[in-house]
Design brief:
The structure holds 2 protein chains of 2 kinds. Chain A is of the alpha/beta class. Chain A is about 40% helix and about 15% strand. In chain A, the strands form 2 sheets. A 7-stranded parallel beta sheet of chain A has the order 8-7-6-9-10-11-12. Chain A has a 5-stranded parallel beta sheet with strand order 2-1-3-4-5, with helices on both faces. Chain A starts with a strand and ends in a 10-residue tail after the last helix. By secondary structure, chain B is of the alpha/beta class. Chain B is built from 13 helices and 12 strands. In chain B, the strands form 2 sheets. In chain B, strands 8-7-6-9-10-11-12 form a 7-stranded parallel beta sheet. The chains are: A alpha/beta, B alpha/beta.
Chain lengths: ~325, ~325
C-alpha cells in the first residue's frame, strides 16, 4: 500500500505512526493549528488523501469528509465510532472500520478495576498513606465489600459480557439492559434502564453511543441507582447527563462513580475533581502497550485489505 | 443480651479479657454479653493487668479476645500469669501474635476470624493488581492535578489477561484470589506447603521457582518462622524486571529493604502493598513512586467484614463457654 495517501488526523500511537510512515504515504494533519490553516492543509492535500486514520474522540465529521474528494476509507483507532458521520460516509461510499475484540479484555478489566477502586476507595487509601495520614490519624475508614454486589450492565455486547464473566467470579449477581433480550441463563434482563438501576448496586455503561443511547444515564436513572449506588462509565461521556451526575454525586444522591470518559475530554468538571467518592481516569480503557499494538495492527490490516480488494477485517460501514 | 448458656455459677456474665488496638470496635458488643476486662482501658502494664485479672471476682476470665496488630503478644509468660485462660479468640486471620505451640502444650484452644475476611482481602488484592498494571491511582493523580489537558494521554499500562500469577499460599484467601483472576484470563500458579489435588493450577515446590515462572507474585500465606521474608532478594530476582508483587498478608513475609531497593533500581516493575514490616511506617522511597500502590492495612476494612467478624467472635466465645466446639478453630 505504498501509494496509499493516508491522513493521520492526530498523534495516537508511535508504532502505528511508524508503520503508516513505512508502508504508506503518510500525511500528518496539523491538528492543533487554527481553523484557517487546517482548511488550507486539507485543500492542499485533497487530491492525495484516500484514507483517514482517526481516534475515538476525534472521529471524522461531515466537514472533513467533504473536504476529501478522494477519500475511500476511515479507519478508527478505537471501537467507538460515534464521532464518525456514518451517514455521510454511506452517501459517499466511504468504508469505515474500527478495532473491536482486541481491546475487550482491557476495557472490561478497567471497568471492574474502577468498581473495586470506588467501593474500596483504593486511590483514596493510597493518597492517605502518601500524605502521612496513616501515622498521623491511624486507621483508614471502613468501606463496603465488592463481592456479592448486584451489578447492572447497560449493553451486553463483547465488553459487557466480558465484564459479566469477571464479576461473576466475585459472586456478583448480573442483570442487564439492552434493546433486545437474549437468552442468558445466569443474567437477569430488565426492559428499562431505570428498572435496571433500581435493582443494582453498581451500574456499568458498556454500550455503544448512538441516538438511542445518548444520555441514557439520565437523572431518573441516577436517582434509581441512589445514595448506595455506584456508576461506572467506560463507554462515552455522552452516555451520561454529566451535570446531573456531578450534582447527584456532590449532594450524596448517588454513592459514587468510576469514570473513564467525559463529555468534553480532556476537560473534567472541576466539581468532580473536588469529590472523594469518585475515581477519575483519563480515557485509558484500552491503554496498554499490548492492546494499542494490537489495535494498530487491526488498523493497518484493514488498510491492507482495502487496497488489495479483500474483505475488510472489521467494517462498520 | 447476656447469653444464658454462657452465664457462670454466680449468675454473672462471664469475664472476658479484651486486648484491642486504640479506636478498635467490638467493645459495646462484648459488653452486652460479658464482663469485659479491657487491657487498653486499664492503662496498666501487662503483668499488673494479668495479675488483677487472675484475681478477678467472682471468677477469673476463661477466654480472651486478642486483636492482631500489636495489641498484645500471647506467649508462655502471658499464659503462666493467667492459668484460668483456656480459650483465645483472635480477630485476625493471622495468629502470629499467639504462640500456638505453647497453647497446644497447655490445652488452650485458639480461634481466628476464619473466612470472614477472605472475600474482602481477595477483592483488595485484585483491586491492587489492576491498579498497579493499569495505573489507576497514578492516573487519578494525573487527572486531579489538571495534567490531562496539558500533557495529553496518560502513559500506557500493561495488560492483565494472559499474565501468569503465582500465588504464595493457596488457603482460603489464595483460592479466592485464584478464582477471581482466572475470570480475567490469568494463568494461575501456586506454592503451598502441600500440593492440592483438587485444583488444576500448576504447583511449584518452592517460591523461587514459582517466581521465575510468574509475571505477578501474590503473597497470600500466613506469617510464621518458615514464611518470614519468604520473598527475598533471590525471589525478586527470579520474578524479574517485568514482575509485579502484591502483598496482602504480613509485611514481614517480604524483605522490605530488598523490595525497596529492587523497585528503586528497576529490577521489578511494580508493587501493590497493603502491609509493611513496621506499620504504620512506610519506606519513604515508596511514597514518591508511581509504579506502586500503597494501602494502610485496609484489606479487611469493610462494614460487612466488621459486622461478620463481630458475629464470629461472639459465636466462638459463646461456643467455648457453653462447652461446644469453636466455630473457627486454629489447629496447631
Amino acid at each position: 500500500m505504498e501509494s496509499l495517501g493516508v491522513l493521520l488526523l492526530h498523534p495516537m500511537d508511535a508504532y502505528l505512526e511508524q508503520e503508516l510512515a513505512r508502508r504508506c504515504r503518510l500525511l500528518r494533519f496539523c491538528w492543533d493549528a487554527p481553523p484557517d490553516r487546517r482548511d488550507a492543509f486539507l485543500r492542499a492535500h485533497a487530491g492525495s488523501v484516500r484514507a483517514v486514520v482517526t481516534g475515538g474522540v476525534a472521529g471524522a465529521g461531515a466537514a472533513l469528509i467533504d473536504a476529501l474528494p478522494r477519500l475511500e476509507i476511515v479507519a478508527c483507532f478505537s471501537v467507538g465510532f460515534d464521532r464518525v458521520d456514518l451517514a455521510r460516509c454511506r452517501e459517499r461510499g466511504v468504508r469505515v472500520t474500527n478495532t473491536p475484540g482486541v481491546l475487550t479484555d482491557d476495557v472490561a478489566d478497567l471497568a471492574v478495576g474502577l468498581a473495586i477502586a470506588v467501593l474500596r476507595r483504593i486511590p483514596q487509601a493510597d493518597g492517605y498513606v502518601r500524605a502521612g495520614q496513616w501515622k498521623a490519624k491511624g486507621d483508614f475508614t471502613l468501606t463496603t465489600r465488592f463481592s456479592g454486589k448486584r451489578v447492572g450492565i447497560i449493553g451486553l455486547g463483547r465488553i459487557g459480557l466480558a465484564i459479566a464473566r469477571r464479576v461473576e467470579a466475585f459472586g456478583c449477581p448480573v442483570s442487564y439492559y439492552q434493546r433486545t433480550k437474549r437468552d442468558y441463563p445466569n443474567y437477569t434482563f430488565f426492559p428499562t434502564v431505570v428498572e435496571l438501576a433500581a435493582t443494582s448496586d453498581v451500574l456499568v455503561v458498556a454500550c455503544s453511543l448512538n441516538e438511542q443511547s445518548r444520555r441514557i444515564v439520565s437523572r431518573e436513572v441516577i436517582d434509581a441507582l441512589g445514595p448506595g449506588g455506584v456508576l461506572v462509565n467506560i463507554g462515552r461521556g455522552g452516555h451520561v447527563d454529566e451535570p446531573e451526575l456531578v450534582a447527584a454525586l456532590a449532594e450524596g444522591r448517588l454513592g459514587g462513580a468510576g469514570l473513564d470518559v467525559f463529555e468534553d475530554e480532556p476537560e473534567v468538571p472541576e466539581a468532580l475533581v473536588a469529590l472523594d467518592n469518585v475515581v477519575l481516569a483519563p480515557h485509558m480503557g484500552s491503554g496498554t502497550r499490548e492492546t494499542r499494538r494490537a489495535m494498530a495492527d487491526v488498523v493497518l490490516g484493514n488498510l491492507e485489505a482495502h487496497v488489495s480488494g479483500k474483505p475488510l477485517l472489521t467494517p462498520v460501514v | 443480651m447476656a447469653s444464658s448458656a454462657a452465664a457462670t455459677a454466680s449468675g454473672e456474665p462471664p469475664a472476658i479479657l479484651f486486648f484491642r488496638r486504640p479506636g478498635a470496635p467490638f467493645n459495646a458488643a462484648l459488653r452486652q454479653r460479658f464482663r469485659v476486662l479491657d487491657f487498653l482501658a486499664s492503662g496498666e502494664p501487662l503483668p499488673v493487668f494479668l495479675a488483677a485479672a487472675a484475681a478477678a471476682a467472682p471468677d477469673p476470665p476463661r477466654a480472651a479476645v486478642v486483636m492482631g496488630g500489636g495489641a498484645a503478644r500471647v506467649d508462655a509468660a502471658f499464659l503462666d500469669a493467667l492459668p484460668s485462660l483456656r480459650c483465645l479468640v483472635s480477630t485476625a486471620a493471622g495468629v502470629d501474635h499467639i504462640d500456638l505451640a505453647e497453647c497446644a502444650r497447655r490445652g488452650v484452644v485458639v480461634a481466628n476470624s476464619g473466612t470472614v475476611y477472605s472475600a474482602d482481602v481477595a477483592d483488595h488484592a485484585v483491586g491492587l493488581l489492576i491498579d498497579v498494571l493499569r495505573c489507576v491511582s497514578a492516573a487519578e493523580r494525573f487527572v486531579r492535578r489538571g495534567l490531562w489537558p496539558l500533557q495529553g494521554d496518560f502513559p500506557l499500562g500493561s495488560k492483565l489477561a494472559g499474565r501468569r500469577v503465582g500465588i504464595i499460599g493457596l488457603g482460603n484467601i489464595g483460592s479466592l484470589i485464584a478464582k477471581r483472576l482466572e475470570a480475567f484470563g490469568c494463568i494461575i500458579h501456586y506454592n503451598s506447603r502441600r500440593q492440592k489435588g483438587s485444583v488444576s493450577y500448576k504447583y511449584f515446590p518452592n517460591v523461587h521457582d514459582l517466581a521465575s515462572e510468574s509475571d505477578v507474585l501474590v503473597v497470600a500465606c500466613a506469617l510464621n518462622k518458615e514464611t518470614q521474608h519468604i520473598v527475598n532478594k533471590d525471589v525478586l530476582e527470579a520474578l524479574g524486571k517485568e514482575g509485579i508483587i502484591i502483598n496482602i498478608s504480613r509485611g514481614a513475609n517480604i524483605d522490605e529493604g530488598e523490595l525497596v531497593r529492587a523497585l528503586n533500581e528497576g529490577r521489578i516493575a511494580g508493587a501493590g502493598l497493603d502491609v509493611f514490616e513496621n506499620e504504620p511506617a512506610v519506606p519513604a522511597e515508596l511514597l514518591s513512586m508511581n509504579n506502586v500502590v500503597l494501602t494502610p492495612h485496609s484489606a479487611v476494612f469493610t462494614l460487612e467484614s466488621r459486622s461478620d467478624l463481630c458475629d464470629q467472635m461472639i459465636g466462638n466465645l459463646e461456643a467455648f463457654l457453653s462447652g461446644k466446639p469453636l466455630l473457627t478453630p486454629v489447629l496447631p
